[in-house]
């Protein structure tokens, strides 16, 4: 199942516009904040698909029942670009457990690369809902390897994969390699092209560099 938040007019698209704009991108604090706000909107939309239960609350003037989350999800992010989006989810799911995965592109041959996972930290995911987020889904290989790395430790009941901007190729790759998993894929926008270096076009550039500065 794929849900594309940017297909309907909302303030969400204003934030997508700003993270794409090469002039606004020069303000790294605003770029990080926009990623965080986008994460908050994803969190709100995903919350509609979680389990709820009625809980009695006592106000100064009476007692009533209100639906509340039955359990908090586990929020997982791919370092480092995923950190602002992760914070946006934490702003809404403030009691959530957290998972972090370090994955990067390691050059293998001229013009090619392989995804290297160096580190993964996660709570027990058994029977839980996992929200796995990364700002960009280019080839989709990072997301697939990250998901499988987490599954090697424990298996969630359901996973919501979140990418702010995804390529058509990346979505197809995830669908092909995770077809037997209970997954909902959430994206903000879908772009058609990838460069030879596997960057999304028009995309927005390197989200990690824009958020935290150029890496060596």
Structure description:
The protein is globular. Helix 1 runs antiparallel to helix 2 and helix 2 packs across helix 3. 31% of the residues lie in helices and 36% in strands. A 7-stranded mixed beta sheet has the order 1-9-8-7-4-5-6, sandwiched between helices. The chain has a two-stranded antiparallel sheet with strand order 2-3. A two-stranded antiparallel ribbon has the order 10-11. The chain has helices at 11-20, 28-47, 83-92, 141-151, 168-177, 207-212; strands at 2-4, 52-59, 62-69, 74-79, 97-107, 113-121, 129-137, 158-167, 183-191, 193-194, 200-201. It contains 6 helices and 11 strands. By secondary structure, the protein is of the alpha/beta class. The chain has one domain (2-51, 68-212): Rossmann fold (3-Layer(aba) Sandwich).
Major β-sheet, in short? 7 strands, mixed
Task: Point out poorly predicted stretches.
Answer: none
Along the chain, the helix and strand elements come as: EHHEEEHEEEHEHEEEH
CATH fold field value: Rossmann fold
List the domain count as a whole number.
1
- CATH class value: Alpha Beta
Indicate the overall shape. Answer: globular
**Which structural category do the helix and sheet elements fall into?**
alpha/beta
Q: How far do the termini sit from each other?
A: 38 Å
Q: From the coordinates shown, what is the CATH architecture?
A: 3-Layer(aba) Sandwich
Percent of sequence in beta strands: 35-45%
Strand order, sheet with most strands: 1-9-8-7-4-5-6
Q: Considering DSSP H and I runs of 4 or more, what fraction of the residues is helical?
A: 25-40%
Helical stretch count?
6
Q: What is the CA-based Rg, rounded?
A: 18 Å
- What is the number of strand segments? 11
Mean pLDDT: 92
